[in-house]
Design brief:
This protein is an alpha/beta fold and 250 residues long. It is 32% helix and 16% strand. It has helices at 39-52, 69-81, 99-112, 131-142, 163-176, 192-197, 240-246, and strands at residues 10-16, 57-62, 86-91, 116-119, 147-150, 153-154, 181-182, 186-187, 221-224, 229-230, 233-234.
Length: 250
């Protein structure tokens, strides 16, 4: 086992860089790319990593991951087969305007073994994403054993008084009435679009750190990019087992 990965317990996949939203708060910018990770390579990585490390959770997100639902399902099927306890999906809930397709994909997710879905619904997503389709998706997966939570983005903090947070709270009421709970959500960080559109809300006299940044000498979570990049290498050029064994901090 690589000593720098001795505490590795989480695998994340950016399924695609494409997105159905154009959110002003997005730390990744405009999401103009169309890349998506190969489902066979991704599932194979889950199998191989799980054999060498005590993986406790797998997450798929994007972009909008459900633009490629088969990939999401293949990843979580592999995670279920490897007895990884937490199998999460983050989605904005908008990937189709066809209600039959929305229900079909919802059922596929249930069958795949996803056991927690975080829906990103807030003032920022709903500027460009129609709420009706997000609600339809929530209904499709809510009648199952999947834990369904709202994952709103907050500007400054959930308690901060600003127009965006107030709109978010109104949007969340639509889901609360369906019995869906509000998760922790996340605080918007000064990066990408957020730095461009909400500069005045950030206090630059304090250190604005990325809460998702890993210690390169003690990595707990690895994240595959949509193009297959991982730990300074690439899933399509080198076997994941070799990538993990050869990793060294820069």
């Amino acid at each position: 086992m690589n000593k720098y990965l001795r505490n590795l317990n989480r695998i994340e996949f950016v399924v695609t860089s494409a997105c159905t939203g154009k959110c002003k708060h997005c730390s990744q910018g405009e999401h103009i790319g169309t890349e998506n990770i190969n489902k066979a390579y991704a599932a194979d990585a889950v199998y191989k990593i799980s054999k060498g490390y005590n993986i406790k959770s797998v997450m798929t997100f994007g972009g909008e991951p459900l633009l490629y639902p088969e990939t999401v399902c293949e990843i979580h099927k592999a995670a279920k087969e490897m007895n990884i306890p937490k199998r999460q999906l983050i989605t904005n809930g908008f990937f189709s305007k066809d209600y039959d397709k929305i229900n079909q994909i919802g059922q596929a997710l249930i069958n795949s073994g996803v056991n927690e879905i975080l829906i990103s619904a807030d003032a920022f997503h709903q500027e460009t994403i129609p709420l009706e389709y997000v609600i339809s998706f929530a209904k499709a997966v809510n009648q199952s054993d999947i834990t369904l939570k709202l994952n709103p983005a907050w500007l400054v903090s959930p308690d901060h008084q600003n127009t965006y947070n107030e709109i978010t709270k109104e949007i969340l009421k639509e889901f609360i009435s369906m019995g869906i709970e509000i998760g922790e959500g996340n605080m918007i960080i000064p990066s990408g679009n957020a730095l461009k559109y909400f500069y005045e809300y950030f206090d630059f006299t304090k250190e604005n750190t990325n809460p998702y940044q890993e210690d390169p000498e003690d990595i707990h979570a690895i994240c595959f990019s949509a193009n297959g990049d991982i730990l300074g290498s690439n899933l399509y050029r080198q076997d994941i087992s070799e990538i993990l064994s050869s990793y060294r901090p820069e």
